[in-house]
Amino acid sequence: MRTETKHTAAVYALALSALLLLATACRQDMHDQAKYEPLEASSFYANGMASRPLIANTVPRGFLREDTVLFTGLDAAGSPAAIYPQASLAERIPGAGEMSEKELWGLLLKRGETRYGMFCTPCHDPVGTGRGMIVQRGFKSPPSLHEERLRESPPGYFVNVMTEGFGQMSSYAPLVSPEDRWAIAAYIQALQLSQHVRLAELPAELVHSFGEAQNEAPADAAEHGSEGHGEEVSHGADQSGEI
Question: Which domain holds residue 84?
Fold first, then answer.
């Protein structure tokens, strides 16, 4: 009986080993599929390359970039565009084609706020002062979006920087669609306006609300000022002062 038991155990062990070998071979075959990987050599083609170059004078579907302003932020002269490509944006944003101009701008700013929060705040922070979380952890600080040079920059400038990259900032073109780059540019300009708008430019009801908020502000806040973007806010500003 012991001999038969040992024999049966040996048979089971051999069968299990065979199954394990088969399973391993199957898994390895799935890892090493019969296919060419990018930039891999091939003896099938005369030039020895497995990857085929594009046919001359052709453009892959979805990669035609005729609208230079939309895709780069630059006009025909190669300068940052000062005007938003509204027609192109309305075509590319779902549901925007049937919107009024006011509704389109509202949607654009909302998309810009969301995308800015996703892609820009780690460096530029929520207000745009350049003191985002990774800057606080040692990354080089970008310039404040509220400095005069950037406040005077047209929206196409920001779109082009997002498209091509600038300085420490790499290109965001693979991550952010062209329409969302313009949406972020619109939101950046809204941020800039929010930090530098003059009381005289606000509707009367907002000026009244601002005055009430200042009256309710703690005394120490009025004494030390706001830390918004490194500039003190004048709480005693008149109708022509900045808020």
Answer: 68-196
* pLDDT for 239: 37
Under the banding of pLDDT at 50, 70 and 90, the label for residue 8 is confident
Q: What is the CATH number of the domain that holds 125?
A: 1.10.760.10
Domain-embedded: residue 229: no
Q: How far apart are CA 238 and CA 243, in angstroms?
A: 10
Q: How many domains does the chain have?
A: 1
Could you tell me the pTM of the whole model? 0.66
Under 8 Å between Cβ of 163 and 206: no
The single-letter code of the amino acid at 175 is: L
**Which value, in Å, is the radius of gyration of the alpha carbons in the chain?**
30
Q: What average pLDDT score do residues 17-24 get? A: 64
CB count in 10 Å sphere of residue 157: 21
Structural domain includes residue 44: no
